[in-house]
Amino acid sequence: MYSYIVWGNILALVFVVIFFVLQLLTPKKTVTTEPTKLHIGDITTESLQYYCGYDFMKPILVAVRGLVIDVSTRTDLYGPGRELHVYAGKEISRALALGSVRAEDCGSDQLHDLGEKEIQRLEAAFSDLTQLQKLDVVGQVVPLRNLTLEELAKHNGSNCDQFPLYLAIQGVVFNVMKGKDFYGPDGVYPFAGHECARALALMSTEIKDCNANIEGLSSSEMETLRDWKARFSNKYPIVGKIAS
């Protein structure tokens, strides 16, 4: 009886060893996943300027004839201090057409005064970026919207499907959907749908302080407002301005 038990244990051990050997010898299937492509979508030139390489959390973008191109893989050219950094965060159609790296030729898509030679140079440059270098088109430049305060008020979070969360700081309108937990109706700063310059300067969470009046603010409160505006400009898309 004892010998049967011993042999049973030996056989079990053999099977375990064989199992692990087979596991080691069996080739593993490698699962490859496609890297997620960047998608920017609609962007204004006012927001585009913040994608210039100084914030390592943001890609480096340029625009050509309104199409936004991700040039992050070419930091050797477009990164800070590099040869073409003047292009980063800008519409560069005119500069490419002229073969220029002057700052005054960047930030413009005006081509009406250029000749056929310059237009061909622009088309060749665009082809080089998107086909030879295989850089991705990730969005398109759209104009700023002009909103009245009444129109802004519709973007208060009551119907985000139709009216995404917007707020304004000194007339500059930001899309704060990414910060809806902070700026939506139930947030700490429920400012969506409002011009909130004064409230931010005062570090107030009261809706009654949401207006553009900065009279009587101290220098430290004005500095606080500037900090808030810079933070929003870097973090949230600029989508419009308040119509005078």
UniProtKB/TrEMBL annotation:
SUPFAM superfamilies listed in its UniProt record: Cytochrome b5-like heme/steroid binding domain (SSF55856)
Pfam family for this entry, one: Cyt-b5
Subcellular location: Endoplasmic reticulum
Membrane spanning stretches: 6-25
Any one GO cellular component localisation term in the record: membrane
GO-annotated molecular function: metal ion binding; steroid binding
Recorded family membership: Belongs to the cytochrome b5 family. MAPR subfamily.
Protein name per UniProt: Cytochrome b5 heme-binding domain-containing protein
Biological source species: Chlamydomonas eustigma
